[in-house]
């Protein structure tokens, strides 16, 4: 198989483990390209891609743009904060206006869950979901699993604890789908108020004690507290959260094994993760960012082939 089973990448829930393996194998090749003195290939030189971001981003936006440029695509960037969205233009009108300028693919981040799915039903271009509200962040999960595979040789059979604000996290949901499809065991850990009630129906373990979660896992993926999505108080204070759920070096020193530490970024240092762990030899956080470019090159390249 050399083609994805889908025209869009809307979520990990919708793709197969074969799709994920194909993305990884393609990303392996692009990672090799990225380590060459000339980091560019002509693969998408006839393709125009619009990056449409209705929500803030550093890593995902830059990573997609770099991936597109490394593939020789023409790139246009749209940010809602300085656009006619502020004058009341709808999502469909905004995207159709961009597409009428002969754009082939749309990479979109939006605060509403399902926005890229809605778009895929209404426009012809390939859509890549770069994060839709609290729903999915498929390329983040792919680069996370790819980074585990790179560090530990395989994802199958590994135990991954996702620690933090699970309730508001699109990274958590996409990671659960991706890791399970690749044969890993997944645990979620956080305060009871930040764990969705029915999460066990996804086949994950639930742990409320972070030290026990660290003792169980091979990999801890630590997530940010998403204060911008919290309309009510889920815990008394950030200081208290950090005291009970912040991962620090003392906790890792208590373990009788080495574990891998991940974080999708942005990190709130001293809240969910201390610098003595984030910057330690246990951390593969910057490898995740590096791998994001190769993974996004692979996704764009394969979707362009699916046209
Ligand atoms: N990991 C992630 O999505 O980061 P950004 O919000 O900076 O894109």
UniProtKB/TrEMBL annotation:
Gene Ontology molecular function, alphabetical: amino acid binding; aspartate carbamoyltransferase activity
Outline the extent of the Aspartate/ornithine carbamoyltransferase carbamoyl-P binding domain: 7-150
Q: Where does L-aspartate bind?
A: 87, 170, 224
Which EC class does it fall in?
transferase
Example of a GO biological process term: 'de novo' UMP biosynthetic process
Indicate whether Cell membrane appears among the record's keywords: no
Q: Describe which pathway this protein belongs to, using the record's wording.
A: Pyrimidine metabolism; UMP biosynthesis via de novo pathway; (S)-dihydroorotate from bicarbonate: step 2/3
Positions annotated to bind carbamoyl phosphate:
59-60, 109, 137, 140, 265-266
UniProt keyword annotations, A-Z: Pyrimidine biosynthesis, Transferase
- Which reactions is this enzyme annotated as catalysing? carbamoyl phosphate + L-aspartate = N-carbamoyl-L-aspartate + phosphate + H(+)
Q: Which domain of life is it from?
A: Bacteria
User: SUPFAM superfamilies, per this entry?
Assistant: Aspartate/ornithine carbamoyltransferase
Pfam families recorded for this chain? OTCace, OTCace_N
**Record-annotated Aspartate/ornithine carbamoyltransferase Asp/Orn-binding domain positions:** 157-303
Q: Which InterPro entries match?
A: Asp/Orn_carbamoyltranf_P-bd, Asp/Orn_carbamoylTrfase, Asp/Orn_carbamoylTrfase_sf, Asp_carbamoyltransf, Asp_carbamoyltransf_Asp/Orn-bd
Q: What EC number(s) would the UniProt record show?
A: 2.1.3.2
User: Mind telling me which HAMAP family this protein's record contains?
Assistant: Asp_carb_tr
Q: Which family does it belong to?
A: Belongs to the aspartate/ornithine carbamoyltransferase superfamily. ATCase family.
Q: What does this protein do?
A: Catalyzes the condensation of carbamoyl phosphate and aspartate to form carbamoyl aspartate and inorganic phosphate, the committed step in the de novo pyrimidine nucleotide biosynthesis pathway.
> Quaternary structure?
Heterododecamer (2C3:3R2) of six catalytic PyrB chains organized as two trimers (C3), and six regulatory PyrI chains organized as three dimers (R2).
List the protein's name: Aspartate carbamoyltransferase
UniProt organism field = Belliella baltica (strain DSM 15883 / CIP 108006 / LMG 21964 / BA134)
